[in-house]
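ARCHIVE CARD
SHELF: 3
SLOT: left
DATA:
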Amino acid sequence: MTQLWTAESFGLCFESLNDSCVKTVYSPVIRVPFYLLFAITIIVIVFGNLWVICTISCFPQLHTPTNYLIVSMAAADLLLGSFVMPPSMVRSLETCWYFGDFFCKFHSGTDFTLCNASVLHLTFISIDRYYAICQPLQYHSRITTRVSVAMILVSWCFSAFFGFGIIFSELKIEVKRTEELHVACKGGCLALHGREIGATYSIVFYFLPMFIIVSIYSRIFVIAQKHVRVINNCSSTSSVSKKDLKATKTLAIVIGVFMSCWTPYFMCNIIDPVVNHTIPTLLYEVLMWVAYLNAVFNPLIYAFFYSWFREKSKLLYKKLYKLC
């Protein structure tokens, strides 16, 4: 009976191949609920972020530089849920990769590209909020629609260049390393974790941007406190609106949730080489899915903290209901 709750046995990913990877066969008692949980998570991510994109896109009054960045970040989460997570679900629960070597590289490159894009979007959002709170008189002249579009293009182009560049340039290194360890096999799809390059990637592409974001928001917090006191004493003397302050607070929550979800995964990438690559693969899988869950939270944060999002969502729902 106890065996039902653990891995039942071991097999091969491809029974007909001599160089097939070993497969851990989990009990249906484990696999079926997790398939259901992951499928529900993917559906929520896809429809939640699609709703954010549609809500902002359908109402011209919501077409602001900040909201353009929000829409673009929602697009990254939408792609994560629709393209990256379904194959990851199969890999995690079947412990094999059945989609070929090239798609393994393309899937991993897309995964890292979307993570990089989210980090860069959050960095640009923090810059947007800095000007809105710390230099409000210059905000509309400096953070224009053109500037916002440029930020979005830089985020995507830079992320794709380095995301796919790291993965595909690591092809020969990966083969060499697996041959040295005598674990080259069919049915595996290794990414950056468990290698020194993963630690470098984590520091340069995650922790460094997060340090910049936290530094900017620390400065914003100090200035925002002063503005709050001014608004409470005499609102007419303040050039920063309560709306801007609330938007900054909400976006700070978005950044905080992102860091809470992704930091444990990237910490493992840094620690693993130090402990001679002894961190279990299962732990990486768990932390990877915790990181993916971040894509669920953003639409919920907007719904809870943005009154304009709730109002426009109701209007959009009514429009769609009439069409049906």
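SLOT: right
DATA:
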Amino acid sequence: MSKTNASLMKRREAAVPRGVGQIHPIFADSAKNASVTDVEGREFIDFAGGIAVLNTGHVHPKVIAAVTEQLNKLTHTCFQVLAYEPYVELCEKINAKVPGDFAKKTLLVTTGSEAVENAVKIARASTGRAGVIAFTGAYHGRTMMTLGLTGKVVPYSAGMGLMPGGIFRALYPNELHGVSIDDSIASIERIFKNDAEPRDIAAIIIEPVQGEGGFYVAPKEFMKRLRALCDQHGILLIADEVQTGAGRTGTFFAMEQMGVAADLTTFAKSIAGGFPLAGVCGKAEYMDAIAPGGLGGTYAGSPIACAAALAVMEVFEEEHLLDRCKAVGERLVTGLKAIQAKHPAVIGEVRALGAMIAVELFENGDSHKPNAAAVAQVVAKARDKGLILLSCGTYGNVLRVLVPLTAPDAQLDKGLAIIEECFAELA
């Protein structure tokens, strides 16, 4: 009997806990660049990219070749037992790319959550302080500390009780929803007045462009004021570039466009082209604050993932993917704004930084009425027509596009045509 999506979904429901969500009832069988084929042989255009993991596309030949070569050398020693050159070489390259005119060092780990956890550890050890300020709408991971930092209870921490203490929530600047730069800075000052003295705060962590929160871009002026505030009080600024990093926004790291540098930068997702790798890069003096043995992990910075990441960085150079990112973003934004012009009562805003693109939907053009139902309809209709999309946002009313930067124009245009059909069919 041939496998079907329905039969595999039944097996999944019996074997996998329901807490592991699944956006599309589809089982992938193979993929190439920006196309995915399911177990029934149906091909889909992938505008999700594994949630920003496949900036270089599915199974990029150069990445696969690098991984294959490494597989035939060694797959694991644990870097803390026997080191290997790819780890060091990758750290050198990351140190050179992360913004900041200062000496840097990089720690490699396995997941984005792990990177954020370690960034907080480093900040606490460096400052001798324990508190952390995060923002409304933030997403930093699903581990206990990162759930505390994440600004969305349902579904991420629902039913799990209170998360770790010492975390305080400031307002993320969001002009569309009435939160000005002044409002955001004032909310931090209120924390200093009401909850914790500045000398108790180790770090402020921020996504330069919010991911799960809705792809809102932090204004450059805000980032400059936030940097000055951190400097004034001896607080470390952590840039969470897990989703924005590896070229998604038109520069390798989004902070390159923000006019200031963070003290610590987290990265993951697309850095290794689909292989699990993450890390923290920061000022050498801060990165060295923890004694030997305090950082690391059994699989952290595996030789396989390091080889993949080094290949990804070569692909970016050879294929000029930062330029391609800007072209992809412009093409999609132009197309999406044309769709918006036809459906102004539903589509409230199309926004992007590079190829990190969002479409926010409202009811009857009212920005106080998020339209999650319309988003769900578009995602489902698009799937039926052969396009994989994602939603996001605090209220689930944002469509997000994270198509591989290597997708050809014809596929981008076909995806846009499907999205246009979906909006035309909305009830």
